[in-house]
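Note to self: the last two entries modelled the partners one at a time, which told us nothing about the interface. This time every component goes in together.
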Amino acid sequence: SSSGDEALRDKRARILSRGLPKQKPIEGVKQVVVVASGKGGVGKSTTAVNIALALAANDSAKEIGLLDADIYGPSIPKMMNLKGNPELTPKNLMRPLKNYGIACMSMGFLIEETAPVVWRGLMVMSAVEKLLRQVDWGQLDYLVIDMPPGTGDVQLSVSQNIPIAGAVIVSTPQDVALLDAHKGAEMFRKVHVPVLGLVQNMSVFQCPKCKHETHIFGTDGVKDLAKTLGLDILGDVPLHINIRETCDSGQPVVISQPQSDA
Amino acid sequence: TPAERANLAGVRHIVLVLSGKGGVGKSTLSTELALALRHAGKRVGILDVDLCGPSIPRMLRVQDSAVHQCDSGWVPVFVGQDKAIALMSIGFLLERPDDAVVWRGPKKNALIKQFVTDVAWGELDFLIVDTPPGTSDEHISTVEALRPHQLLGAVLVTTPQ
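The predicted structure of the combined assembly is written out below.
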């Protein structure tokens, strides 16, 4: 009977979920948005940084935090022009470093710039836990989390540990990137995190001399994927040397060139 | 164990392709390197240990292939113009190419060990190992599993950014 089947499925789901960590919100943080992709090098950190800054610029009353969950390759310190070890509060929580009004925390503040983090999954899990809960975030309206590439331990740890308001998936229009972005979306579906939409990055390159436009990574790949998955395109970002230059120098484009097309 | 050594016993050199950063072109370079070596007359194999984002099958247009078993283990998929490059990737084990592999470390380690010891590579001059971004489970497990064999070295790929 169908009700008997459903009861059995519910019981099974309850038993299976017993071993999983319980989701607990971070104190003081109203909404968490994660920026992920599946594929590496598509512009997650760049997008996360600029999203955080744009949220702050749109409403100066909002408090925004930025967490760099990329344990292996933390990019946020360089992009936000921040350096140094975080101080500890009397309650033994790490104080996030602030720049441009955004509270930031990253593995990059805890290790030397060139030191590799060659850790297995279990150690990474506990590091992510610390970066989430042992930080004095204060009262935040939004916490933007920059995820590492892939669909592994960090993504699972973050989504199982805290309630996430939504995920933004970044991709370039390239086939190989779209394949991984699709997997990323699939992963969020599996862990019941709503996907807010896709961002198409590096969509077109305009030659600074002759203004000729080249779609280096293909055209409309992300638009097609969005249609397949039933998601919105949240943004389309061109491949512009300004974006890369400003990130490398720690002055993200939303701050340094708010009027530009990028 | 002798059985573990057997499958890689015929491989003369193993080259790891790493980067740390994602999206710099590791898979692209691994594929081109393998094709170039094949062009130079060498016997080549590619091991794709990027479990979360296996790109190599698509790059060589074999994403719909399946792997078979023989008595020494899994048979790699043969790719390239003369079908002489041996390729193994998790991409072949997925039911659909879009399926996500959302695994924690220990499960990834187990599969990587199998990829190293249970694939019938045969006689190869070079085995190119394409890795995912980062310096994590996949990398540690791959190096550990390959330690008893002839690990020639690693090539690091990066962009100027």
